[in-house]
Design brief:
Layout: E1 2-3, H1 13-22, H2 51-59, E2 60-61, H3 70-80
Antiparallel strand pairs: 1-2
């Protein structure tokens, strides 16, 4: 899991994902909404009720998939490291 420091970037999370795709790293697993693991999946909580969770979600990216090789992992590390 990567947590983007959006204050230091010139792009948002969607832009970051686009940049990964341009580098052929577009297989990222992205969860559409954060939710505490203690809540059942059918429970919907408004974002204003979970400001910290939604704030983390807005900065989080998981550029991974289940069958990544060591080379795949290194490609992601190289692409996101300054």
């Amino acid at each position: 899991m990567l947590r983007l420091n959006l204050d230091r970037l010139r792009i948002n999370r969607a832009g970051f994902m686009e940049e990964l795709k341009k580098r052929n790293l577009g297989r990222a697993c992205i969860h559409t909404a954060p939710r505490p693991s203690v809540l059942p999946r059918h429970v919907r909580v408004p974002s204003e009720d979970l400001p910290v969770a939604y704030g983390i979600h807005a900065r989080s990216v998981a550029p991974i998939f289940s069958k990544m090789s060591g080379e795949d992992v290194q490609s992601v590390v190289d692409a996101v490291t300054l």
